[in-house]
Amino acid sequence: MTTTATDFIHRFVPGTTAGAAPLLLLHGTGGDETDLLPLGQMIAPGAALLSPRGKVLEHGMPRFFRRLAEGVFDHEDVVRRAHELADFVAAAGERHGLGKPVAVGFSNGANIAAAMLQLRPDALAGAVLIRAMVPLPVAPASDLAGKPVLILSGAMDPIIPEANAAELARQLSAAGAAVTHEVLPAGHQLTQCDITLARDFLAGR
């Protein structure tokens, strides 16, 4: 697969800190390429930021893949879009001189990041998955040996059952990822605790 770095509307912020891993910022439903830039700057000051806008529209709201209902995904589209995004990341990395990024995704963005980890593990250096759920009905065989992954779930999340997030953690761990799964006293929304844990996780890489 070949694409160009302009296939996704996106924002790129060059890094100012030598050695800081670049971040791939992936917004939730209804977000855009600007949504997570402040989060990226808070959790990894000085890191290069690559933030694409999802191409799928649901009632005018950008997403990274189609869904049939809340929590029910179009799995064929998940696979296609994960490969498409991984190709974009590779092309953008060449264009901007970036190493492999750590994906930081929220909700729909976390789900496409999880799919990328499983389908294209070499595209990412790791991931912070905020309010993620299992993206595919059967986990693809993938080698995530030692890849650091932080999953941040909400104990009171009305969208994602706790068992689903736990299954995602199990799948990624079984593939060899170094998974940390934290269940926070929160719903589906982003909280200060998410920011603190993500910052500490990235600083400790």
UniProtKB/TrEMBL annotation:
Q: What SUPFAM superfamilies has UniProt attached to this entry?
A: alpha/beta-Hydrolases (SSF53474)
Top-level taxon: Bacteria
Coiled coil regions in record: none
What residue stretches are annotated with the AB hydrolase-1 domain? 82-138
InterPro entries for this protein: AB_hydrolase_1 (IPR000073), AB_hydrolase_fold (IPR029058)
Output this protein's name.
Phospholipase/carboxylesterase
Q: What is the lineage of its organism?
A: Bacteria, Pseudomonadati, Pseudomonadota, Alphaproteobacteria, Hyphomicrobiales
